[in-house]
Every structure is written in C-alpha cells, then in structure tokens.
Amino acid sequence: MKSQGFLAKKKAQPEVIHNAGKARLGRADALKLARSATKVIAARGKAVVMFDMTKNPPTDDELLAALLGPTGNLRAPTLRVGRTLLVGFNPDAYASALK
Questions:
Q1: What is the pLDDT of residues 34-90, one digit of tens each?
Q2: CB neighbours of 62 closer than 8 A, spacing ≥ 6?
Q3: Spatial distance between the Cα atoms of 40 and 34, rounded to a whole number of angstroms
Q4: Beta bridge partners of 47
Q5: Cβ(79)–Cβ(67) under 8 Å?
Q6: Which among 88, 68, 69 is positioned nearest to 78, based on CA atoms?
Q7: pTM higher than 0.70 for the full model?
Q8: CB contact burial 50-79 (16+ within 10 A = b; e otherwise)
Q9: Contact in structure between 91 and 6 (CB atoms under 8 Å)
Q10: Which of 9, 17, 32, 39 is the most buried (most CB within 10 A)?
C-alpha cells in the first residue's frame, strides 16, 4: 500500500500490475527478471542494496538473498522502471528511479 500511495502522489501509472498472491514468482523467475535489468535496487526496511548488473553482476546467491522473501518467492512490491528493477519499498529508491 505504501508503494501505491507513493506512485499516486507522483502521478505515476503502472503499465502492468500482477497480483503476487495469485501469480507467485520463484527462484528461477526472480533471477530471470533481475538478469534482464541493468540495475537492481532491493530494499528491506531502511536498508537498500544496489546491484549493477552490467559492470559488476552479483552471484545468484547474493541476488536471491535480496530478492526472495521467507516463502522463497519474489518479494513484493516489485516495480520495473525502464531497465531498473526495484524490489521492496523505500521512498528514496523509488524517487530516484522515477526521475
């Protein structure tokens, strides 16, 4: 809900919305999605981790530790802005990606 409120304030309209409760993305899907991006920003609370997927790509284990929740599925919310993938909600990360 925080991410939806943030996007509404910025007047940003998502092109596609997937319900994570109905269509879960596991390890392979999460890796495929992340590897298709040039930058991955993962937030857990106030902690934010940024991966440059072209210059210094992380290992699968590093990437999965940031992307997957305790159920083993891709964490929500996940947002793709151009070639940047945002996982989890952090207002500063969202603001920089939506510039």
A1: 999 999 999 998 899 999 999 999 999 999 999 999 999 999 889 888 899 999 999
A2: 51
A3: 7
A4: 44
A5: no
A6: 88
A7: yes
A8: ebebeeeebeeeebbebbbeeeebbbbbbb
A9: yes
A10: 39
Q: What dihedral do alpha carbons 89, 92, 98, 99 form, nearest 10°?
A: 180
Record the tokens describing residue 48, joined without a space: 């934010």
* Cα(72)–Cα(64) distance, integer angstroms: 9
Q: Which residue has the tokens 């919310």?
A: 77
**Quick check: 77 and 88 in contact, CB under 8 A?**
yes
DSSP state of 57: P
Burial of 44 (0-12, 13-18, 19+ CB in 10 A): middle
Sign for the pseudo-dihedral over CA of 67, 82, 47, 59: positive
Structure tokens at 22: 């109905």
Q: Where are the alpha helices (DSSP H) in the chain?
A: 2-9, 27-35, 60-67, 91-97
3-state SS assignment for residue 97: helix
